[in-house]
Every structure is written in structure tokens, then in C-alpha cells.
Amino acid sequence: MKLTxxxxxxxxxxxxxxxxxxxxxxxxxxxxxxxxxxxxxxEWIFSxxxxxxxxxxxxxxxxxxxxxxxxxNPYNPNNFSNISTDFFANIEKEGTCICPKGNAGxxxxxxxxxxxxxxxxxxxxxxxxxxxxxxxxxxxEAYSEIVRRLKQLRDNGEAHKLLxxxxxxxxxxxxxxxxxxxxxxxxxIHSNLCDTARKASFKMVMGDERPLMDSFQSKYIxxxxxxxxxxxxxxxxxxxxxxxxxxxxxxxxxxxxLSYTANKAQEWIPIxxxxxxxxxxxxxxxxxxxxxxxxxxxxxxTVGFEEYAEYVKDKTPEWQxxxxxxxxxxxxxxxxxxxxxKPQVVDVWxxxxxxxxxxxxxxxxxxxxxxxxxxxxPGTLLIPDRKGNxxxxxxxxxxxxxxxxxxxxxxxxxxYPFGHNSGxxxxxxxxxxEGRGPYKPKMAVIIFQNPMMSVPGTKxxxxxxxxxxxxxxxxxxxxxxxxxxxxxxxxxxYLERYDLNTHWVTWPVLGLRQPxxxxxxxxxxxxxxxxxxxxxxxxxxxxxxxxxWEGRISGERIEDKTKWYEEYLSKELKExxxxxxxxxxxxLPGAVWVSKKGTRYEKYKDIIPQExxxxxxxxxxxxxxKKKDGTKDxxxxxxKEDGTVVRGFFTSSGKVEFYNSDLVKMKDAWxxxxxPLPVYEPRRWQPDKExxxxxxxxxxxxxxxxxxxxxxxxxxxxxxxxxxxxxETAKKLGIKDGDLVWVESPYGKVKAKVKxxxxxxxxxxxxxHGFGHWGLGKxxxxxxxxxxxxxxxxxEPLSGQALHKECCVKIYRA
Amino acid sequence: xxxxxxxRKEFLRLAGLGVATLAVSSLPKKVYAYxxxxxxxxxxxxxxxxxxxxxxxxxxxxxxxxxxxxxLELNRDDRKIFWNQVFFxxxxxxxxxxxxxxxxxxxxxxxxxxxxxxxxxxxxHDEEKGLVLQRYERCIGCRYCALACPYGxxxxxxKKPDYGGRKEALxxxxxxxxxxIIEKCTFCIHRLERVIEKAEKEGRNIKDEELHYLPACVQTxxxxxxxxxxxxxxxxxxxxxxxxxxAYRLLEDLGTEPNVYYLKxx
Amino acid sequence: MVSLEEKLLNPIKTFGKGGxxxxxxxxxxxxxxxxxxxxxLISGLxxxxxxxxxxxxxxxTNFVFFVGISHAGTFISxxxxxxxxxWRRPLTRAAEAVTVFSLPFAAVSIVADLGRPGRILNxxxxxRIQSPILWDVTCIGIYLLSSVIFFYLALLPxxxxxxxxxxxxxxxxxxxxxxxxxxxQAMPEKQKKLEKGMAVFLTVLVVTVHTVVAWIFGMxxxxxxxxxIIGPYFLVGAIFSGVATVIIISxxxxxxxxxxxxxxxxxxxxxxxxxxxxxLFWFYFTFTEYLSAFYWNDPMEMSVVKExxxxxxxxxxxxxxxxxxxxxxxxxxxxxxxxxxxxxxxSMFVNVGMWxxxxxxxxxxxxxxxxxxxxxxxxxxxxxxSITLACFSGLILLYLIFAKLFPVISIWEMKEGKEKAIQEVxxxxxxxxxxx
Lengths: 814, 266, 436
Known about the structure:
The complex is a heterotrimer.
Chain A: H1 5-25, H2 31-35, E1 42-48, E2 57-63, E3 66-72, H3 84-94, H4 100-109, E4 119-120, E5 135-136, H5 139-155, E6 162-166, H6 172-182, E7 187-189, H7 196-206, E8 212-213, E9 220-224, H8 237-246, E10 250-254, H9 260-264, E11 267-269, H10 276-289, H11 295-301, E12 302-303, H12 305-312, H13 317-324, H14 328-340, E13 344-348, H15 350-353, H16 358-371, E14 381-382, H17 398-404, H18 412-415, H19 425-434, E15 443-447, H20 451-454, H21 458-466, E16 470-475, E17 487-490, E18 499-502, E19 509-513, H22 526-537, H23 561-575, H24 582-587, E20 592-594, H25 610-613, E21 616-619, E22 622-626, E23 632-639, E24 645-646, E25 656-657, E26 693-698, H26 712-717, E27 723-726, H27 727-733, E28 740-745, E29 748-757, E30 764-768, E31 808-813
Parallel strand pairs in A: 6-7, 6-15, 9-10, 9-13, 10-11, 12-25, 15-16, 16-17, 26-30, 27-29
Antiparallel strand pairs in A: 1-2, 2-3, 4-5, 4-17, 8-14, 18-19, 19-20, 21-22, 22-23, 23-24, 26-31, 27-30, 28-29, 28-31
Helix pairs in contact in A: 5-22, 6-22, 7-16, 10-13, 10-14, 10-16, 13-14, 19-21
Chain B: H1 2-40, E1 45-50, H2 59-67, E2 85-93, E3 96-104, H3 113-117, E4 123-126, E5 131-134, H4 144-148, E6 155-156, E7 182-183, H5 189-201, H6 208-212, H7 216-220, E8 226-230, H8 237-242, E9 247-248, E10 260-263
Parallel strand pairs in B: 1-10
Antiparallel strand pairs in B: 1-8, 2-3, 4-5, 6-7, 9-10
Chain C: H1 4-13, H2 17-43, H3 58-69, H4 71-82, H5 92-113, H6 122-125, H7 132-165, H8 171-181, H9 189-218, H10 230-257, H11 265-296, H12 299-309, H13 314-333, H14 340-367, H15 382-403, H16 411-432
């Protein structure tokens, strides 16, 4: 066969045509982006993150109404440094940052498994493995059902039988107001699951609940059970710590587990869980023995040093070695290094705090700072001058007032001498489950909280929720708690709503969170939900003012709930430190207000001018401000021996307290008198033959509590939380890497995958917190192990801190 | 007649030989061209990663994924796509133990084993910026480049890309991918191009500050362990860091001349 | 007694039950493989066991293996022809057919391995001479083309015989013989010359092709592949497995076609000797490779060596050593066991061993990347096995079809041997021993 010329040409032609056609279909990766850029509308909106409670500043790129990227806000100190000098001098040069969770926020916003409509339970049975049989209902139906229940309570004089739980950073003020106006004292927030033990320790020692570490200017950083490089609550933490190391500081971390922070430290000191206090006392012993303490500071600004010195006399490094397993020599060396390297900072967070001896242990550690004069000086623990929006008090009407006089259900004030006003979740749930308490609560509203997983003792919480008549949960996912609810209300993410965030830096800074996109499913934001409830219930203030209708500045009735809330926030800003309106705040660079006055040191020496003293009450040597009605308000200073009034420390003596004789009069929640000294007592639950291992938990930068595990970006990073076991220990148990084991405590047992490591104390096993979901969403489910079920639902007896780490287990192959 | 055949034969033989010689001799030229090109390049973009500062928070990995529309893979670790990845390796024995942290973008080698082996030029070396880039539409998915890369920074789309819930909310500056092709870090070239364009429009050189926090991973780094800049500018931050004596490059003995420098921990 | 010609032509006339059944089975496997491939096209390569860092798996193993066994034909046919090895005559056709039929499946394996097979022409459109893949495409392309021509040239006289002798077969066959024989009459000198030239050319190609295949690996900087002997090592392995394949096929043909008087024990004995030599060569290369790696003690190289010797792949590795070296050595050294059965058993082991060798060249290196942060584990999935099975089935099917259309043993060559061999050998002998 021969091709004719014509045929040949035809063939060539078609081939060429096909090839060039394919050619035209192809487009270049970047070569073309320059020439034919796709057209889109783009804007950048400044806001604050809320993937965790850190509220870092963010800058959100919105393209055609969709969030496509979240970047660090270049103006917000919370993303850079907690020291103003560092911030003003270096921020432009170095730029800001956000953490992986902040970056991944976009997938929480656009998570396909978010709740879109209100849901109503059809299966009356509630429980972990029970299908709630949720059906979608209209907003009207949801509101009227909730309001009907609330009205019933209020009308029957049982308003206090409503329990309200909330997240501790977002939209708290309005919820607090609602509870007050409704008439329930049972407004509780997340804090007591977090660091109220630390708060109590420092409150006892130096009168401030949350001093902040100035590691940036420090030369010696000693951390007990704190992991700031991965539990990056404030995104400035990694920077200020790594800079300190770069500038020659030594970082020493005392922790049973080689945390990311311990990993970056020059020295990791593994310790038995819950014994940090003993090590701190022994360090005190060495520092006093060697006379390395700051004599002038102690003389001028502390009380009770003699008693403390007497107490630690026999608390030698050898004494502590038996308790902590830390070699006496190491403690001796660390104590001397710590006392002689100036400035030095010592800090403690949730590691030692989550044990039943947490507060006193933390107190012993806080006193190490007192020994070396390590308070409110550059490079030490600073008292944050944290000022922002002001929560303006509401005045409940008579009905509400009557109910507000009732005790809180957890009897916070009576039982927990150093309790935090966030309440005591563990007390609430165990009382509910066991039917104890001053009365029987009937209803709960749970907003953005997941106690089923975040409170120790899952089974107790399950029982507690079963014992309530009606549970409303507002969340963005069907969390384990939402699965126990009667009505579930779809919530909003931080990219869909407002908030004011007074930042945790050492001088006044306030960042705005604003809606970047409208709520995706047209749902109300949480504050709008609360406002709507208030409106429907017709809640009024004392003077008959319809609180949820009237604009706080204009005083006019405002139909639009968002506008109403904008005024609410504006008022808080006006009355607070910034003294600007919401609109003005929006226009500030980065939508963040940064006070020019900056970080101030040795504030305790501040002399309070005479003119300010006029309107005060003086009791003993303590000066209080006066309320409008003439009763004493907050502590503002102390009367010195020389007659001047200075700020001092906000303790009962106005000074740092090594010893407080008043404490003997108090009793803790377990009925024991409070020790006036920072004594070391072993925690209540010690390992024994049956349950030989300490079980601890920790958090990593990639997840927040139990709420981010449905974020695909974050789960992709690390899809499970293996049980970490020391290699030697595992060898003795005959367990290999990757084995499945049972972790069993008297309260339950869970399956876990083992990962061997050299980086954990041989007597300790541990899990990253937050995994093991059966709710939330498909991404989160069947991943890793939840440890909450292994623990009793117990709180620390002084502060009400949930005991997340007091647990002993046995381990055997599954 | 006889002569003619011979001459034709000879001609063919000669021609064949010539082509073969040309082809073979052009090979080393092509392979070694990078040296000459490097000298004349307009920019030398490098990344410097300070391992002393890096805390292993993974912020860079996620920022990169979000910025570059990198697909998700939730179940198989060995098929995940991370243009930038953080690794840990435990060293030492209790209690003297450390998790060595190491993170890895694409190294944008000047002597690029991946580009050398690519049969279609889907992987190419951008002459002006000195970056190794990918033309997705040319890639046949042979994965040879990924094999050849000694650093393992090239990722294959084993399946149809999964963008989770953000299918509608992808970065419009970055082309999306599809199954069966290779993708990798581009040093956020779309952001880089914007800066270059702007400078060109204003008729000036790029300022060092403009580059500082350019790639998404550098911008978001929590401990500011990452730096980015132009090595051709001797006064740039990266130039200073590279000269600092702490700088080294990974697997330098392979002669790949990577453009990512690490700063030693101590 | 039937004549040689009849004996070889008779099987073409019929297509027995066994043949049909085999064909159905093979078509079933091919269909299965094809459906697996369709599935792979739809879902992407996630249906395979490949991953990162094990980016290549069974497909590439098959590719190298098929290219390897394709060397049988050329080697036996071309090299033995050039060397005037008389005993080659009944083997050439079988061997050349292996070449021609296995190469397409090397190409199929590559297509199966691609993430975007639709773009395969990009390799030519955007050809880059730097890429070893282009060298491969070129070499294998030329090799396939020349092999087909060579095969065809050697087949031509027999097609003519078929055309002339097989008058009672189906219309299609008659038409086929008529068309393919191109009116071929006698053997002109020119053709013989061309054939000889082709033989030389192909020999060169054999060396090039498999070296280039080896260079796909050798041109990267990965541990385990960075060795200068990788080219010859692959080549020896290729011929090794090729010869083994020819032994197996010859034995099958002998049995099925009752060719006991054509394919005699001596042929197998000779092939067995060849196999033994190749086995020794193969071991020599293997030994050199690992010895230098051991002595060098480069951590990267050693991690791969350790993986093969003691690690996850140790069982496969030692099985390979036993199959490719120990068993051939023991069976083939002894003339008593170097029988037909003996060589066939050895050949089977060699083929399995050589497939494993290809596998072990690729996988352990990939699973131990330089940076020690991700280690790969590779388990091929049913998709990969199905496509592999389909490739082998395809090879057998093509062979079956061929055997039912053309004589499986070169009739003219046998005839030529009978007529001229003694004379030729005598003349040759005389040429260097004129005194005799």
C-alpha cells in the first residue's frame, strides 16, 4: 500500500491539529500567572484568633467573600513579645507569627461537619454509646423550647437551678450579664480546667493571679511542668524563650516528660509527677544555707521568711531525692546556679498544678522567685498591667436578686478557700452525678464547652448530664457533650463574630476580633443567641431597663442584635482603658489598641499619691478602693512603716508571703486546715503494686484541648496520640513499639498504641490530651485515646482545679 | 552508480556519527551548565533556617499548606504532601536525650538532580530567580524526579486532591493540582513575583525587607527561625547569616548546591 | 517417519482443546489486568501499594524484567549466529520470539506506572536529552524495531514455506502467509548479508539497551544505585534470565510438539553450561557490589545493604541468592544433573530470582532514603499483581498465537544446517588449520 501525496498531507495535517489542540489546552504553571491573572476581589481584615484561648492577632485574606488565608497580624504584641521595649524596637524588623492552629483555622471555618441548623433530640435515653436521634428543627422552635424551659424555672423561683458553662475568653461578659439578670449564680467558665492551681499559688504568694514570665530579658529560666514552646498559649512564647537562649540564658525544665520545651532546654530534669514542690523546697534549703537569697528584697517586701527558713531547714536535697527521684547533686547545683545567675525567672504551670497537692507545690515554686527577689523586675516574673475593656456591672431585678442569693451549686466560696470565680466543674459534675449538693439543678446551657472529654471522669460527667432535665449545647460541632444534649444550637467560629481581647502582655493592649465573613449558615452568633434569649424572656435591670434591647451608648431600642452588641462593646471600650469606640478601634493599625505607656517594672514600689487616697478605706495596713455604696472594693495598696502608701503586693499583708498565719483558720474542700507554710505533702493517689504507673497528659502546639481534632490540617500533622512509655519500662513489661495495650485504672480502661521513647520518666506513662473522640466529626473519630475516662472527677481542694494528672494505671498487652 | 551508493552510505554514516557525537558532547554541557548560569543570575534567593531557634511547632508546614492549596491526606502517612515538613529524631538515652528537630522545604538546588532526569521538562530551573519549579501540565507522573531527589522534597498526587472543606476557598494565586502529577515547594513564587513586579514597576531593586517574610512558612515561623532573601546582595540578612560560620547545607558532599542553608544548633 | 517440515507445520494446522482453554484463561487474566488498570486510571495510583518514599514498585520491576528476558532472543540468535555456534539452529526462533513479545510488555509496564499515561507523548514532544528516560525510550524503541525486522527476516523463508505447503488451512492464514511472504522466493545473498549486519547491530543494542535501563537508576545519587558496575550487572542479569526463559520455552515446545529429535539433550546441556557461566558472572558482580559497599562502610550504602541482608527484605534477598547462584551451581556443575529437567528447574528458579533481583534493586534503596526521617514499607496491592499477571499472560498469549501461525522452529535454518553445516565447519576448520 502506498500513501498518495494527498493522503499523506491529510494525515500530517490531522496529527498536527491534534497536537496543537492539546497544546492549547495546556496552561503553564507560573509562566501564565503573570499575564492572565484571574480576576477577584480581595481584602485583608485584621482580627484575633480563637483557635485556642491565646487570642493572637490575625490578618485574614478574604477573596470573593471566602477566607483563603490567615496570617499573623503584624501590629499585635501578642504575636511578638510580652515586653513593650522589645515590641516597639523589634517588631518591624522581625515580624510576627501565629501557630499551626491559627494557620489551620480556615478548615475549622469551612469544616463540612459543622452543625448548620438547630437539632432536637428524639431519643430520650442519653449516654455515651446512645444515638441521640437528632432531628433538625426551626430556629423558632428551638428558641421557644429553650425559652419555655427557662421561663418555667424563673417563674417557679428556680432560676438558680440553671447551670451555665462557657468558654473563658469569648463573649463571657454578656453571658455573665445574662446569668445575673436571669438570676443564677451558677455561671462557670473553663478556667478551672486549666490553671486555677497556678492562679491560687501565686495569689497566695504575691497577690496576683497570673504573673507573666519575662524570659526575653532573663539569664536563667527555670520551668516546672510548663511547656510554653508547644503549649503556645500566646504565640510570643517561642520567640521570647529562644531569643533568651540565644542571648546566653540557660533554660532548665523540670518535667516528667521530655516536652518540646525540655527538648530545647540545656537541661531536662525528669521528675516524679506531683513532687515538684519538694524539689522547690530543697532548692530553698540550699539557697538559704548558702545565703544566696536577696536579703534586701526579703527584708523590705516579704513576710514570714523566718518560718519558711525554719521549715526548709531539713528539706535537704537528699530528702527530696527519695521523693522526686532527682539526684541531690543536681538540685544542689541547680539551686546555686539559679540563685547566682541574675536576672532569673522561675515559673510553674499546669504540670504540677493538676495534682491534689498542686497549689502548695506551686506555692513552694513561687517562693523560689521571692527568695531571689524575682518579682516584677526585668527578666523575672512580671505583674501584668493588664487593662482593656471594662465589664460594666448589671443590676438584676428583684426576682433575679432573690435567686442570686442562693449558693452556687459547687459551693465555691465555702469549700474552696482559693477557688477561682470560674467555678469548680469537677464539683458540679460529681455532685450532679451523685445527687449531692444544696439543691438539684434542672437545666444546663453549655456554650463551646465539651466537659464529656475535658473534665476528668467521663462516666461521672455522663451520669451528671443524664441527671439534668434539659441540656442545651451551643457548639460548632456535635461534640461528645452535644451528643448528650436535648437541643443543640449551631455556634459560630471566631471568624464570624466579635470579641474584645485584652491581651496577656505586660502592658495594656487590646485586640479586636471582628466578623471576617458572615456566619456561614445564617446562624446567630453566641452573643446574639444569648441576647435573643434575654429579649424573649423579657429580662430587665433593676430600673426596668430592657437590657437586651437598649443600646448601651445610645440608650435607644435596637432591633438588630449585632448592632446592639456593637454598642455593648463600644461602651466597654469607652469605659475601659482604651477610651475609644468600636469604630475607632477598627480603624487602628491591625485593629489593635496598644497603650504607649509600655511595660513598667517594680510596680509594687509605686507610691499612691495623696489625692487618690481620699476615697479609700484602710484596714490594718491595707488600702482598699471604695465602691459607690461605700463598701470596700479592690485592694489598691499598703501602708508602709514610714507612713507612705505604696502599691505593694495584693496579699493580706501587702507583701510577698512566705508564711501566712491566717491560713490555719481556713479549711480546704476535703476538710483539712490549710497549712500556713508551702508544705510538701504527697499527692493523694500514689502508685501501688496494682496500678504501678503515673499517667500524665500534655498538649502540643498542633491541638487545643478537645476541640481542634476535626481540623483536617491539624489531624494530618499527627493523627493519633500514642501512649509514651520509657524504653526500659517497656522492655520490662515485654511491650514493643507500636503494640496495642490496655491502660487500666480503677475507673475504666482504654486501648492505646505504644510509642517507646527515652524521653519520659521510667515510672510514668503519658498521652497527649484531646484525642479519642466519638463525637465532633469523622475526621476526629477513632483516632487515638481519650484519658479522661481513667480518672475520678475530682478537684484540687484549695483551688478547685480539675485533677487531670492525678491518676495511676497498669498496662498490659491488648 | 556504485560510487554514488558508497558516498551516500558514507554520508549517512558520517551524519549519524556527527549527531551522536553532538548529542553525547552536549550532555555534560547541559548537566554542568548550572555553574555558568549561577554566576550570571539576577537573583539568588535562599532560605536560612536556624535550627537553634526552631522549636518544632509545625506552624510552617500548615501555613504552607494553606497558602499553596496543598491537598490533604489523612490516613496514610506515606502519602501525605507537605511542601514543608518538620521531622523529629530521638537521640541519646534517658535522661540525656534530645529530639533533634529538622525541617525541610525544597532546597532549590543549583545542580538539581531532579531537573536533570525529568524527561519532559515538567521540572525546570527558573533562570532568573534560580528556583526549581514545576509545570504541572507537562508532568507525565513518572516520579523519576522524586526518586532522584536526595532530599525527598518532591511529592506525588496519588489520588484526586482533597482540599477538605475549602474547595471553594482556595488561594486564587496558586494553581490547583490534579491526580498523577508531582508537586513541590516553590518558595512561594507567586508572592515573590508580586514583589519583583512591584520593584520593576517602580524601577528599583528589591529591598531586603521586602523579602524578609515572604514565603508563608517564613512569615508564620513562631520562633522566627526562618529567613529569606537574596544572596546576591552582600548586605542582606541572609548573606550575613550565611557568612556567620554557623551555616551549612544539607548533604553538601553530593554537590547539589542547595539554596537552603541551616544554622547549626550550637 | 514424518519429515521435519511436516512435523513443524502440522501443529499450525490445528488448534486443540488445550490451546483454546489456555487462550481463554489468558484472556481472562488480561481482562482482569485491564480492569485493574481502568480502576487505577480512575482513582489514581493510590490503588497501588506505592508510596513516598517507595515511589516505584512492581511495575518498574516488571519493566526491567521484561527488557531483561527480551535479551534472550538477541543473545542466542545474534551472538551465537555471529559465532557460528551450530547448536543454536533449533533455538533461534523460540529465542527471537521471546524478544519480540516481551518488549511490548516492558512498554505496557511503563504506561501502567505513569501517573498521567495520557501524556506519554510529552516524552517526545518535550524531549530532554539529559533525561535517562529519553535514552531508554530511544534505545528500546530502536531495539524493538530492529528486533521485529530481524525476527521477520529470519521468519520470511518459513512464511514462504507455509505459503507453499499449507494450502489446506483457513483463508485468513493463507492470506496472511501470502501477504507476509512478499513473494519471497529464494534466499539471495543480500538478505544473508543484511541479517548478519543486523545481528551485529542488535548485539550492540543489547549492550546499550540494558545498560541504559540500568542507568535510569545509576544516574541518580541514591545509595545502592551509585555504582559504576550497574550497567554490566544489569546486562548479565538480563541475559541470564533471558537464557533461562529460552530453556523453559524450548522445553515446553519440545514436550508439546514432540520435538525430541530436534531439541536434544545436548541443546539443553549447552544452554545449561551457558546458564552456569552467566550465574557465575552474576554472582561475581553481586559479590563485588556488596563487598565494596561493606568495605566502604558508607552509612547510606550500608543502610541499604543491611536492609537487604538482615532487614525486611532479607528473606527475599537470600532466596534470590539461592535461586540465582546456589541452585544453578549445584545442578549445572554436575553433567549428570545438567539434563533437560535439571536445566528447566534451574531456569525457573533463575527467572523468579532475577525478578526478585530487579525488585530488590529498586525497593530497598527507595525505602531507605538518605534523610533518615521517613522509612518506607511497600506491599503491592491486587491492582499491581493483576496488571503483572496480565502482562505475563499477554506474553504467553502472543507466543501461543505465534505458535499457531508459524513454525516455532526455523525450518530453513534446520535445513541449512543439515545441508551445509558439516561443510561449513570443515571449511572453517581448514581455514585456520590448512595443514589438515
